Amino acid sequence: MKALTLLAGLLPALAHAALNVTGSTCTVTPLPSTGSQEPDDTPQILQAFKQCGTNGKIVLTEGLFHIGQVMDTLSFNNVDIEIHGTLRWSSNIQYWLRSSLPVTYAGRSAAWRVGGTDIRMRGFGKALFDGQGQLWYDQNRGGSNQNGRPISLTLWHAKNVLVDGITWRQSQFWHTFVAHSENITMTNLDMNSTSNSQWSTVNTDGIDTDCISMKGNSSNVHISNVHCYQSGCAVIGSMGSNSAQPDYVSNIYYDNFTCTHSSNAAWIKTYSGTGYVRNVTFANFKFTDVNQPIYVTPVSDTHPPTSRSELHSPITPGNGEKESLLTLRCRKCIYGSSGCDSSRLKISDIRWINVTGTSRYNIGSAIHCSSAAPCDGFSFENVDIKNKDGKATKFLCSNIANQAKSGIPCTGTCPASWPQQLTGDR
After folding, report:
1. What's the average model confidence in pLDDT over 223-251?
2. I need a labelling partner for 220 at 20 to 30 A (CA). Which of 45, 63, 155, 381 fits?
3. Distance between CA atoms of 370 and 192, rounded to whole angstroms?
4. How confident is residue 117, by pLDDT bands cut at 50, 70 and 90?
């Protein structure tokens, strides 16, 4: 069998870095560091993907790989990708803001897009994705979503994919995102992004700050055996943000979740676009000290934007900070009371089964459905939520069809302006 070694560059400082090709297997070793200057391993990794990405295997050995450029790898076919080392994305924030790859949803973008058919990416519990997130949290200064802030890994137009045994630390933005894809299996993933400064991480979602989040046009998804710390746990949404593009979510099964000190446990949030959420099950949830365990709300506005560019164009509200129109219209409902009952995005057939745990405050659930499209087919089965301090627990409900048969022990109405996060008992 013929073996070929391609040195990554001609300079003496790079002489120890090699892409070794043996048959259909490409093995990449990292470039050595030279003083204070970070090397860039991206070219040799991309060459390996190109050369062995069809009916082959790519092996990234142990060691530290510096990723200084976007990776757009969308034509894999029957490939095994083994990652034994650390991928560390560069600290050049301006490059990423300028160059990250679009992923359609809400103006978001990615550092690495993976697409194709029959892709098996394994980390064996050794692979580490390091986004150097603290740099991003500090420069964002507690702001909201930032255009160009990259998602580490996005599955994009991918089919028949396994992602297994990868750890994320200090992600730049969302840890991973799946779009326009089918038959995706993701197992044994460990994600943690924690700020050590005064500035919070802000939206370092695991899958879309939420741990697992289903965005628009997701269907037939089963997610199980997940432990989430200090984040929204299992989420549908947000969706319906673009009135010109219907969003559909159906047949979602969340199973065996543990939520610790989370903001919410099992919740749904929508904008005032069109589409639906239907046939969603939250089953076998256990949680401790959760801010607001069950939460459903439409986030809506009576005058939706006419285009994507309008939706995401930066404008300046009264506080002087530039934000998108989408963000401000979100606030009209969550932080005010305007337009919360105008949403036409239907939510139906939602089940909470075997959901037990403690709430931080005296609210077990808060469900406000749009009066323009009341929710139906809601049900609680063996739901036991108690306040951690032993206070009486409230279950608030509005605009739920056939509420008396739902099993939801409604103790009062849920106002249109009910907040996503609580700061005390209500």
Report:
1. 86
2. 381
3. 35
4. very high
CATH H-level superfamily of 18-207: Single-stranded right-handed beta-helix, Pectin lyase-like (2.160.20.10)
Portions of the chain given CATH number 2.160.20.10 = 18-207, 209-426
Kindly tell me if the per-residue pLDDT of 426 is higher than 60: yes
What is the overall mean pLDDT for the chain? 84
Closest of 186, 182, 180 to residue 206, by C-alpha: 186
Tens-digit pLDDT profile for residues 310-357: 444 443 333 333 333 333 333 345 444 555 677 778 999 999 999 999
Does the domain at 209-426 match CATH 2.160.20.10? Answer given as: yes
Highest mean pLDDT among 68-72, 136-140, 225-229, 270-274: 68-72
